[in-house]
């Protein structure tokens, strides 16, 4: 019955060395602070601003890779913990994918929407990200689409995709340009 803490990455996706990202922690709570952990070790503490706190990573290195979580504290007690968010820092070797949405960027509630992530590389798999969403990104195998059969206003938002290929190692692309889906 206590507060629920969520954690997300903005922008979502794998980060290139030297890149930056922001870890966003939020909860339905009034006062207190967030403590950010990586691999079980405490990193930073931030006071709540509104109902969220943001922890930025600049000039990312391999040391920033890890399992992050947010703990909400008030009065010296941990009241809630987020799920774990995996943050990866990897070199980008694949071309940038292209994300498209059919029938378009603006649709009416109840419409059928298809997202397609295309990349000039055979046998690449891709992830579809929804900015601010806590849940796991959607995996798309090659020539696979993500369909929403009866789109609702809650499905609107900023979408992007990122691809990878398993060669001798795991190679990544940069994140596609972001598309905003508006549901009316």
UniProtKB/TrEMBL annotation:
Gene Ontology biological process terms from the UniProt entry: cell surface receptor signaling pathway; immune response-regulating signaling pathway
The UniProt record lists the keyword Lipid metabolism: no
Keywords: Disulfide bond, Glycoprotein, Immunoglobulin domain, Repeat, Signal
Listed Gene3D superfamilies: Immunoglobulins (2.60.40.10)
Signal among keywords: yes
InterPro entries found in the cross-reference section: Ig-like_dom (IPR007110), Ig-like_dom_sf (IPR036179), Ig-like_fold (IPR013783), Ig-like_Receptors_ImmuneReg (IPR050412), Ig_sub (IPR003599), Immunoglobulin_dom (IPR013151)
Domain Ig-like: 3-86
Pfam families: ig
Name the UniProt record assigns to this protein: IGSF1 protein
């Amino acid at each position: 019955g206590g507060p629920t803490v969520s954690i997300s990455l903005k922008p979502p996706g794998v980060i290139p060395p030297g890149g930056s990202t922001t870890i966003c922690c939020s909860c339905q709570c009034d006062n207190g602070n967030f403590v950010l952990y990586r691999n079980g070790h405490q990193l930073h503490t931030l006071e709540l601003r509104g109902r969220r706190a943001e922890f930025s990573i600049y000039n990312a290195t391999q040391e920033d890779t890890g399992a992050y979580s947010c703990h909400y504290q008030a009065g010296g007690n941990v009241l809630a913990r987020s799920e774990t968010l995996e943050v990866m820092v990897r070199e980008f070797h694949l071309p940038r994918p292209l994300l498209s949405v059919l029938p378009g960027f603006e649709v009416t509630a109840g419409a059928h929407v298809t997202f397609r992530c295309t990349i000039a590389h055979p046998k690449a798999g891709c992830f579809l990200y929804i900015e601010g969403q806590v849940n796991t990104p959607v995996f798309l195998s090659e020539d696979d689409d993500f369909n929403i059969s009866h789109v609702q206003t809650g499905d609107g938002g900023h979408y992007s995709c990122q691809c990878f290929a398993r060669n001798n190692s795991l190679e990544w692309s940069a994140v596609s340009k972001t598309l905003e889906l508006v549901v009316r």
